[in-house]
């Protein structure tokens, strides 16, 4: 009689409902913990790493995908078109060099008076041409070894309305010279305006980007 009563209670509709509610709560707890873990990995962990590791950079500019990048020293032997590099452009080559920043480090260019160095922004752009390549800049666009780069027509004004001057003509890149170009946004101020760059400081590798 007692055994039947226990068996009857264990299989009663109320007991089954209570067990289902408990299982549902457990599933919600597990799902919530998983979501918290994902948020930590995608948001909190990268931010923590940015603070703790000086080889990480957070990019907010539009010329390359916005997000978190690792950096490594630039090696000319492994340079290839498409690689995103950090560099210092010569502001004397153009009246309006892009002033957006990628990291907290400034490039330094010395005036004739060494005690008053000028500071300007470190930039990040994809490589488009390497030493030995021939680049031709025309009003219709930029060609590297005869191949037209996408979205490369020089503009007369920057997105801020400032006049910009294109580096029109034929450029044969010498040793240590690189051509940078971004086709992501039409107003990217790249080598079309300040010519080849030689002060390449590092290579960027994406860790977490949100507008690839």
Q: What would the keywords be for this entry?
A:
four-stranded antiparallel sheet; six-stranded antiparallel sheet; alpha+beta; about 210 residues
Description:
- There is one protein chain.
- The chain has a six-stranded antiparallel sheet, with helices on one face. A four-stranded antiparallel sheet has the order 9-8-7-10, with no helix packed on it. Strands 4-5 form a two-stranded antiparallel ribbon.
- The protein has three helices and twelve strands, in the order ααβββββββββββαβ.
- The protein has 212 residues and is α+β, with helices and mostly antiparallel strands.
- The longest helix is centred in the N-terminal third of the chain and has 40 residues, at 13-52.
- A hairpin with a 2-residue loop joins strand 8 and strand 9.
Order of helices and strands: HHEEEEEEEEEEEHE
> What is the topology, as strand order, of the major beta sheet?
1-2-12-3-6-11
User: What is the SS-derived class?
Assistant: alpha+beta
Give the low-confidence spans. Answer: 94-104
Round the mean pLDDT to the nearest integer and report it: 77
Question: What amount of the residues lies in strands?
Answer: 25-35%
**Main sheet?**
6 strands, antiparallel
